Amino acid sequence: KRFYRSQNFNYVELIQIQAEQVFTDKEKAAAWLNKPQTTFGGMTPLELSSSETGYVSMKDALERLNQGYLF
After folding, report:
1. C-alpha torsion angle, residues 12, 15, 21, 22 (rounded to 10)
2. Contact (CB, 8 A) for 15 and 55
């Protein structure tokens, strides 16, 4: 998948879509996205995804989860 840089990107929406693909369930994705994680400094994945840097970190985290890695 290729993402093109744009000031109009809504990183939160993108990470929600990707989480739903990884968890294959909207409720499970929402639970993960809204749960504060010690790995992420006590922030939720959604909070971190509001910036490009945070989005990239959460995208990487989802890719690791999808490959079977746990935090």
Report:
1. -140
2. yes
Element (H, E) at 13: helix 11-23
Q: Is 59 helix (H, G, I), strand (E, B) or coil?
A: helix
Q: What is the pLDDT of residue 69?
A: 85
- 61 contacts 55 by C-beta, under 8 angstroms: no
Compute the mean pLDDT over every residue in the chain, rounded to the nearest whole number.
88
Burial of 56 (0-12, 13-18, 19+ CB in 10 A): middle
- Closest C-alpha among 51, 55, 57, 66 to residue 20: 66
* pLDDT recorded at residue 7: 52
Alpha-carbon gap, residue 37 to 48, rounded angstroms = 11
Chain-centroid distance of CA 64 in Å reads: 11
